[in-house]
Amino acid sequence: GLDTKFLQQLDSAHYLHPFTDHAALREHGARVIVRGDGIYLWDSEGNKIIDGMAGLWCVNAGYGRTSIADAVHAQMLQLPFYNSFFNTTNVPAVQLAALLADISPPQFQHVFYTNSGSEANDTIVRMVRRYWQLAGQPGRQAIISRRNAYHGSTMAGASLGGMAGMHAQGGLPIPGIHHIGQPSYAEGGRGMSEAEFGLEAAGWLEASILALGPENVAAFIGEPVQGAGGVIIPPSTYWPEIQRICDKYDILLVSDEVICGFGRLGTWFGCELMGFQPDLIAFAKGVTSGYVPLGGVLVGGRVAHLLTEKGGDFNHGFTYSGHPSACAAALENIRILETEQLVERVALATGPHLKACFASLVSHPLVGHAETCGLTAGLNLVRRNGETVHDCEPFASTHVVGMLCRKHMFDNGVIMRAVGDRMIVAPPLSITVGQIDEMVERIRYCLDLTLEEVTQ
Ligand code: PLP
């Protein structure tokens, strides 16, 4: 068997993990994950764990799909790699481009491939600026994003993202990136209906555009439902109003679908559920269910038109743009999502069931409110003083109870993410109704364990 202690020592001696408190990691030792099947993971000690986060919101088709492994294997034997620079192409990259055009909203007929969501967003920063050059308005350089958003860890991705901690550590944002607030009703909606708050939050975009001067603004970017910042589901009025404002000032609208794309919300892309028509879509994660890295930008007709005209060259790209083995994984992954009708299942069965389960968790004394959209949900750990979302008191020092709860979950076989004191799930789309019950039962048990410690 595996020597867990030895692996943990090697890990601690040599491996710098992303977003990790290494002092704490040294103390507890990294959990060594060795196998996955469906929604389940196993660690090196033989513990079976429900992966309530689908890895990092990406293993949409679930673990253990031999047909994806077979497709990648076959492609690697045929042609493991070739590039698409300088007038060459490859079969899986072309087939996937056509398939993406087919499953995405009709304005998207072109794709630019990257390896990750961060690179997709970096590509978007450069692409929108190039677009406005080609459109004869080179002054349009500013890009508006949202505070507490996550759009990746590259210089531009982290700049678009609005997480203060990331900015502080890297001298960010890069010039020309501006941030407005999040449409979080629980945080900002006191005294307003949800619909009113949605319009107010969208109005912050208009205020920012007017402050910068519309002639200087290139694009607005946001996630349909914000993921890493805490599953913030905007009021239904928000995105249509954002669309109206972008149209009014002729500003490109960008949807970061790295989490929402490929079925997470019960539609192929989140913008379809939220009722807006972006000019560009960033995608990654679910396109291959994370089996191999792949990301990209879906490019709508307005931008693609100029980039594909004579003189519309875009000096940008990656060695692995359109990587044949990655595209082969994506083709098979999308075939699985289609043939098993996993996206429809989220809309009609598993999503509504998760929503009902999370609504029932609100009766727990530690839970203030819960929101669900498709197969992602979040609940707030609070001290309760009353019935409405505004009658809950956050814990004095944020993230302590969240981390405690997360630890109980992990120790009892279910992975949830803690964003401060908000607990989040986003399981594989292949999860069944019965498995959701199993997951929620464990969550309820761990909320009890957490409550016991909090009230001690
Ligand atoms: N955009 C969003 C909305 C994300 O959630 C993430 C990753 O979590 C990214 C971009 C960055 O993607 P990657 O980690 O593949 O670079």
TrEMBL record:
SUPFAM superfamilies the UniProt entry points to: PLP-dependent transferases (SSF53383)
Cross-referenced PROSITE patterns: AA_TRANSFER_CLASS_3
Similarity remark: Belongs to the class-III pyridoxal-phosphate-dependent aminotransferase family.
Gene3D superfamilies: Aspartate Aminotransferase, domain 1, Type I PLP-dependent aspartate aminotransferase-like (Major domain)
Native source organism of the sequence: Telluria aromaticivorans
InterPro entries: Aminotrans_3, Aminotrans_3_PPA_site, PyrdxlP-dep_Trfase, PyrdxlP-dep_Trfase_major, PyrdxlP-dep_Trfase_small
Gene Ontology molecular function terms on file: pyridoxal phosphate binding; transaminase activity
Protein name as catalogued: Aspartate aminotransferase family protein
Superkingdom of origin: Bacteria
One GO cellular component, as annotated: cytosol
Alphabetical keyword list: Aminotransferase, Pyridoxal phosphate, Transferase
Cofactor: pyridoxal 5'-phosphate
